[in-house]
Amino acid sequence: SAGLRLDHERKQALLNTFFSPAFAPAVAIDAKRNFSNVSPQASVAFRLQPEKMVYAAMARGFKAGGFNPASPAGSEAYGEEHTWSVEGGAKTTWADGRLVANAAAFHIDWQDLQLNLPDPRVPAQFYIANVGGASSKGVELELNARLHEGVDLFGALGYNRARFKQGSVSNGVNVAGNKLPNTPDYTATLGVQIARD
Length: 197
Description:
By secondary structure, this protein is mainly beta. The two termini are 40 Å apart. The mean pLDDT is 92. An eight-stranded antiparallel sheet has the order 1-2-3-6-7-10-11-14, with no helix packed on it.
């Protein structure tokens, strides 16, 4: 399969920044910006056997820019974010459908990554800025087993290496090679589901 996604956003902001007491001059900004993008995507799947399939997918991602209601001077607006993502894997069923095992590998590449940054002048206040590039790559394994009628066991394991790329700067600090916020290297899920009539 293949497709295209068209995005268009028109944003307008009237930003008034003032201080009480007035230790700095007030700032007023009236701005308008249009954000447009065409994102292609494609995928292919091949069924090796009735219960075993391999697949691959590739897609372009887009997030529009915008305006910050409060930010340091010069950071009132931020630009678009783009990604390329590639994923491949296998989906399989075993034991007459009582066992499902899936595996996937992925890679995501960001350009002009949008990130929430703390405002150094105002405690507990954040603003959005483009900090540079980043990449995320990893694997995910998933297992679902029907142990008995109405009793299902499920679990998943994941590994993800998400890092800033060369040239990435956050609040004036070079963050190349650092881990992206809120992206754990390892994830795990384990659970049981019991259903009764």
